[in-house]
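Fold these two proteins, one after the other.
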Amino acid sequence: MKMMKQMACAALAVALAAGISGCGSKADYSQPKVAEGTIAVLAGRSAQDTSLKPICEKYGLASNDLSKLPKEVKELVADLGLDKAESKWMAVTVGDVSAAVKGEDAPDVAVALATTLDLDKAIAACEKKIKEEKKDGEVSFKKTAVAGVDAYEVACKDCKVGAKAVVPCVASLDKQLILAATSAACLEKQIALYRDGKGASAEFGAFSLKANDLIRVKVAKVGENVKKNLPSPDMLQAVNSMLPDGDKLILGLGTAEIAVAASADGKNVALDVSLETAADADADKLVTLAKTGLMTLTAMVKGQAEKDADAKAAAAALEAAKIVAEGKVARLSASVDADAALKALAEKAKDIK
């Protein structure tokens, strides 16, 4: 009997260890994920979580100091627990928009926030604020369950697409990830994606935030989705005046990706834009058009550079920008001095009252 008890205790210890360490679990909150059916994703993180942290600290952009915020905003931030919560990244995904374009239904839009924010306390704070402002009839929260996870339905008087009401849902996974979606069905997909590792999009399979990414955006099948949602194909004819066969070029576009990232040494912030076309010749056309536009924009900014330091920095960045065709892909790359950019951001932050 004593041996049986020891074996039982050992088994319990192993089970607890597995639960604590996450062994065998498919839950992974280290990176944004993209569900099947998604056409666009935007993900980002705070600059202070990249190589820009020293510069952020230099200009006071890395602290949680709320002293410069209006009193009511400070109180709300504190009530929600945002002043103490840590956040690693955020991602917004958008599904098929065809029904929304027709005014029939909302697209699957989901927000994932890797954060330690306590959702229950945040919802309670929101309910308190709503009651204080006597807006009970405008927004309310209803406790429910989605895919076995405690969640809240958000009833909003003005949340409609056409005549159809939209009921967003929000839930928290392991107090590490908050998921919000335009419907319970959309939220269920997000829970399966992050908790169970199921339903990931093959189109976005390689999507992730790199070590020093600030923002990364990816849009799939651009031309196909434009064609699918145009009221009339003739609407694209206007672009042919600027670019021969421009309508066909647009309808042939594939994946578009935009990344804003800090360099490894934290000295620069770079912009990289890539756009996949149907053929090498189409990429060449896009590059030619983009170079013409860039020259015009650079000339306009240089005209203001003598009087404006920000314009001077912008002009230098535009002059150094590169636009090239790499096979079927048209690519633009540019960078700015990180110290100057964050200094300007800090100066603008001082104007917030």
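Now the second one:
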Amino acid sequence: MNEIVKEEGKKRGRKPKNQKKEYVINQERSKFYVDVSDDKENLDLIFSLLKKANAKNYGREINFKDLCLLLLTKVTDKDIEKLQENSLSEMEKVERSRDEYNRKNNTNLTLGEYLIKRLNIN
């Protein structure tokens, strides 16, 4: 007898529009691939950095993995904040602005009410 077991807490079907997507990191993952084939500018940057790093007489070849591992140690909290800011869509920026306004002014405006107020539309 085959029994289908539904994961606890998971619901099937459409999700509400305003439901936030939760990002779960898979710590079991051990391989990462970076596809920059369509991004000529960054691909050229990678190759120029690798050429500079390998312009030497001794030692093994420095590869992309070595470069990435070194650069990862240089990432600061400010860089993380910049990445987070760049990941926002236009609507998410508007929603964030509305949430900050509601928190600051102790109000509970909807998105439409907030836009009317900010754009001075009567």
